UniProtKB/TrEMBL annotation:
This is PH domain-containing protein. The keyword S-adenosyl-L-methionine does not apply. The lineage of its organism: Eukaryota, Metazoa, Ecdysozoa, Arthropoda, Hexapoda. SUPFAM superfamilies: PH domain-like. GO terms for molecular function: structural molecule activity. It is found in: Cytoplasm; Membrane. Signal peptide: none annotated. It comes from the Eukaryota. It is a peripheral membrane protein. It comes from Timema douglasi (Walking stick). InterPro entries: PH-like_dom_sf (IPR011993), PH_domain (IPR001849), PHsplit_syntrophin (IPR041428), Syntrophin (IPR015482), Syntrophin_4th (IPR055108). Keywords: Cytoplasm, Membrane, Repeat.
Amino acid sequence: MHKESSVRSENRTLELHSPDGVHNCVLRATDAGEAVAWFNTLHSALNVLTLQALQEANRVLGSLLGDLQHIGWLARRPLTESQNGGRVGSESSEDLERWQSVFAAVTERELRLYESAPWSPEAWGGPLHTCPLISTRLVSSSRQTDMITFSVRCGTPEGVLTHHLRAETHRDLANWARALVQGSHNCAQSQHELVCRCMYQGQPAQLVLHYENGFTLQEGNIAPGREPRTLWKFPFERLRMSADDGARLLWLDFGGEEGEMELDLESCPKPLVFILHNFLSAKIHRLGLLA
């Protein structure tokens, strides 16, 4: 399975890459029209081979990864410090203009990015980056000049990790977007409930986020065998606003006289915030309010 991309200079060259990223071949057509024809033909043939590879990978890797939903090649901009959860990067301004080829896979629970196409179960088990779909969102897609791009954001304990990705065609973009959004919604529905400890008004508590019932705050540090007392409970439709400080504090406003509820999660709130957004998105999609 090879990856191909249209080289933008002169609009009449094609670049083919080997799956391991070691070899490449540049082909030049007589004019832009012939280059487009070759690109479309090669791209269609590779799509057929990719579907065959997906079926074979699922046959071999089912016990390791579960069902793969979508695989293929994308281009990714190098991560910057702000995109990488605050960790210092070494990319120069010249590096930021360069797109890097990555092999991507959407499983039932994750978006996985690899430096090259995995050839063995061991390689499939060692991705370059992994984003849990339950806390991952497709936030934008656009066409800038002749580039078809989209961004994926993931809430992590270190903050928000953003991947800026590029697809080769609008159909590719639609397929990736569908796989990511449906995957996030399916994860939200199967997760169903999330419980995290926190501090509320200086006292230990635990916040329960339930796919059907919404928000429940219960007292924490209870004695064994005793049911926790419910401090407050609100359905999703009561939520008017949510905000966080990116460090440990989460604010929820349910429109009541009590105003904003401040919760100290004692860790980065971004994973919880992204999971909340996916819960809400999945519920809205289920109601048929979004196409």
